User: Fold these one by one.
Assistant:
Number 1:
Amino acid sequence: MLADALGRPLRFIVTAGQVGDVTQAPALLEAQAGDAVLADKAYDSNALRALIAGMGAEAVIPSNRTRKIIIPHDAGLYKHRNRIERCFNRLKHFRRFATRYDRRTVHFTGFVHLAAALIWLP
């Protein structure tokens, strides 16, 4: 999921449970603009960092502990990453989202669109 600076959902892609999140990051960031991209250690890859640099943004991603050369990140800016977690928390208030009752991806995706629209309302 991609969220804005206020923690409101912008884009999301539903994948299978075993698919890594970093594989969907380029599709989520396509045609986006911003000063920084905040992500957790799961998104630490050279390809994603190059994509973010190509956008003209700063990659605020802590280095994975298996990385031989640690890449520093702005710890003060990284503290704002909790906004995506708060976005997921607001979506989980919808029981249908939290428990994933829908078997078909198209039905679940439709409900996520509805829930995301309700989150945007003041």
Number 2:
Amino acid sequence: MSQVGFIGLGTMGAPMLRNLAGSGAGTIVFDLDAACVRDLAAETGAAPARAASDFAGAEAVVTMLPTSDAVAEALFDWDGGIARHLPAGSVVIDMSSSDPTQTVRLGERLREHGVDLVDAPVSGAVAKATDATLSIMMGADSEAAAERATPIVRTMSAVVFRTGKLGTGHAMKALNNFVAGASTTAACEALIAGERFGLAPETMVQILNASTGQSFVTSNVLGEHVVNGRFASGFGLALYAKDVRIARSLTQAIAHPAPVCEAVSGALDDALDELGNVDHTRAFEYWKDQEA
């Protein structure tokens, strides 16, 4: 595509934009942080957007924002809304970790402007965003829209999974992060219990990673960021808690009993209430301070 808009230049968005711009696509960028827009535009050759009308020539717009509400605000509220300037037949690719029920409603609103919506959230954290090896989960009601979106998201990814109808990508992302959150809370709980009984945390991590308790969390987070005290995974506790909360809302919407999801969501929310938006690995410190 000749022109692709990109909205949201944060921790994940910035490296994703670099890979998109490096593919040769013309890019138009916007973020509420004007300095970030200026610096990344200069670095990548992107055109900085100063008004919603600057996106009028975009055949696609990528959003990488914290919440569904932020996506809707950019598309419909900021400077009168970007959506009304997009040409008919263009596609919005929401790569944020959004609420799937809100995604469906957003798709309906965009269709009124002749614009398709594809949800394509990512997994893989900053390292994979940087080297363009993110896993992407893509939902869409229009196969033609999914086909238009695929070459764009492939500039940032190692694999694209087609998940089904609009909203299923965001549902899968939330459920994935619930599973990761369950692993995080369980691993931290085990580490705390073992240490109180006399086990060395380093030994526990080694054994977990050589045994059936092994997971992405034990291999990539527990030793590096918790046991070593770095607490610098790059993923905020507020976003983690939000994603698991979305998964909990999804199970409630379909009336599916999910006691583990409820417990994990509650544990993350409790840590967030006490610590604020710190690196998510610092939840370990909060849980460790809890008395029986």
Number 3:
Amino acid sequence: MGGGARELAGYLAALAGWVAALAAAVLPQWRQSSYAGDAIITAVGLHEGLWMSCAAQSTGQVQCRLHDSLLSLEVHIQTCRALMVISLLLGFFGIIVSVVGMKCTKVGEEDPVTKSRIAVAGGVLFVLSGLCTLAAVSLYATQVTYEFFRESTIPINARYEFGSALFLGWGAASLSMLGGSLLCCSCPAKERRGQQYHRQPQPSTAREYV
């Protein structure tokens, strides 16, 4: 795979990861009510996310309520909120920076060494964005696991399990880090050596005929 094709593939993967991270941050299905145990399944399914909690009726009606106070939220929710916001900001700047540094764009093509460095910087931003998403999703999943197996959570049907947004977040983190790693493969040093090689003056042969 050529350098330009590799950068384009990395950019598309990272962009898809950023969109998936945005969807995961907005969705309320970070955890959902569990139906484990012998109790009768209720007609109401509960979902909770970083910004709201929802109750889905068996008739298909869904009612959602935003979290009222930031200070009243649990620490892990506040931490996950901050990590997801940082992740989205890093990914947004990575999208802009990578477009400038990719070989397939015309911006700054007169200086390919600096252009490659900009592409590497965009890749680093995408990798950091993926790490923040991974940290947020894993932290929330750890808390859900701890509360599920905590003996004081009674009855068992009052416990929560992993929601679909967690799996979407893990996928988003993987795509962002994969795409950022591909963008980081642009090596300015190789291009610099190539430029120096091509710029070497050719020896003049005019004196041979004098």
